[in-house]
Design brief:
mainly alpha
Length: 129
C-alpha cells in the first residue's frame, strides 16, 4: 500500500478489500469508485465542491455476504469513524431499549476520540524532536 492512502486508485482499493472479503466483486468496485470520488471531491476548490453532489451507497443483502466487512475496511482506508448499527435493535425515545439518538452519540464519540488521538500523535511527534 502507498504512503498516502488518499492516492489509492479504485483497483488498489479493491485489491485491499480482496485481502478481507471473498467475492462481492461488483460491491467492492462500486465502493472503491465512490471512495476515490469522495477523495477527489475533497481536493477541488470549496466553491466547486458545492457543485459536486457526493454519491452515497446503500448495501443490501442477506446476512454474511460481507456488507459490514466491506464498510469496516473502507472506513479504515478512509481513516473515518465506523459504527455498525442494526436498526431493529433500536426503539423510539421513551421506550425500553436503545434509542436512535444513542446511535448519533456513539458516532460523535468515536469521531471525537479519533481527532483526539490524531492530535495527541502530532503533539507526541513534535515533543520527540
Amino acid at each position: 500500500m502507498r504512503q498516502s492512502d488518499e492516492m489509492l486508485t479504485p483497483k488498489e482499493i479493491v485489491r485491499e478489500l480482496d485481502r478481507y472479503v471473498i467475492g462481492q466483486e461488483k460491491a467492492k468496485k462500486a465502493v472503491a469508485i465512490a471512495l476515490r470520488n469522495r477523495w477527489r471531491r475533497l481536493r477541488v476548490p470549496e466553491k466547486l465542491r458545492e457543485e459536486i453532489t457526493p454519491n452515497n451507497i446503500l448495501m443490501i443483502g442477506p446476512t454474511g455476504v460481507g456488507k459490514t466487512e466491506i464498510s469496516r475496511r473502507l472506513a479504515m482506508l478512509a481513516k473515518a469513524p465506523f459504527v455498525k448499527v442494526e436498526a431493529t435493535k433500536f426503539t423510539e425515545i421513551g421506550y425500553v431499549g436503545r434509542d436512535v439518538a444513542s446511535m448519533v452519540r456513539e458516532l460523535v464519540e468515536i469521531s471525537v476520540n479519533m481527532v483526539k488521538a490524531e492530535h495527541m500523535k502530532k503533539v507526541h511527534e513534535k515533543a520527540q524532536r
